[in-house]
Amino acid sequence: MGETQIRPLTREDFEAVLALDARIAGQLRRGYFEKRLAAAVRHPKRHLQLAIEDGSRLRGFLLARGADGEYGGSDRAVVLETIGVDPEVQRRGLGRRMLDGLAELARTRGARALRTQADWRDHSLLRLLDRGGFRVAPRQVLERAVHRMPLPATDEEIEAPPPKVRPLRAEDFDWVTRVDQRITGRNRADYLQRKFDEVLQESAIALSQVVEDDGFVVAFAMARIDPGDFGRAQPTASLDTIGVDPGFSGKGYARAVLTQMIENLAAIHVERLETEVAGEDAALRGFLHAFGFRPAQRLPFERAP
Prior knowledge:
There is one protein chain. By secondary structure, the chain is α+β, with helices and mostly antiparallel strands. The chain has two domains: 4-140, 3-Layer(aba) Sandwich (Aminopeptidase), CATH 3.40.630; 147-270, 3-Layer(aba) Sandwich (Aminopeptidase). The protein is built from eight helices and 14 strands. The strands form two sheets. A seven-stranded mixed β-sheet has the order 1-2-3-4-5-14-6, sandwiched between helices.
């Protein structure tokens, strides 16, 4: 192997990345990389994508994105979505060099953390993260199998009237921002604008939902389908944000909005819904546990940039 160099990933690398990823993963993930490329072209400041090459031959790639509010977080972070190194040159430090390059880019963008996830059984990735300075984060990845919710068994179990749940729309932005600010005490308009763009522009499936009460949006849940992030072999839905106006708590609105989301996922044969919860958020963890979420076989990791 000759001298290697790290550079930004470009459109011209697309087919080489596909071929290299197929060698690593054992399957062709064209749809996943097409989606990530389109997102990076549309919002280049939100995406950090690197290549490492030996002469003119691609030897590795890394895809990451900016994050500053997912799962209730408040710090600006960069999320490592996927990383791959040519099997012919693995264990030569190329993966760590790309991680260091990502950290340098993250610092220039004001990020305070690098974050990712990995299956505890993916030993090669765990070794790379360890050598790259990552540590287990004080969070927990939870997941729920997707299957349609049972119908009420008796008339007494049927709410009257049932909550009005509908898909999220662009015109809901101001309402969702107000509800989120009442919950968090912070104006997260920039984060929510990015999420609206992701779920309404980048997703062909209306997963994100709101609940109306007397014509006003009082609860919401925003999710996306990850077709390959963090080494997943199958599409998985990721619940990024959920909120209920504090003045309307206790009415079952959070359960209603998630129930509709599960129904939509079941209809398109997505098998799992995932989220992350901070270790100290006992209330949210308890609600999700009651809704059927359980600890995933994935661990969250983070490091300083």
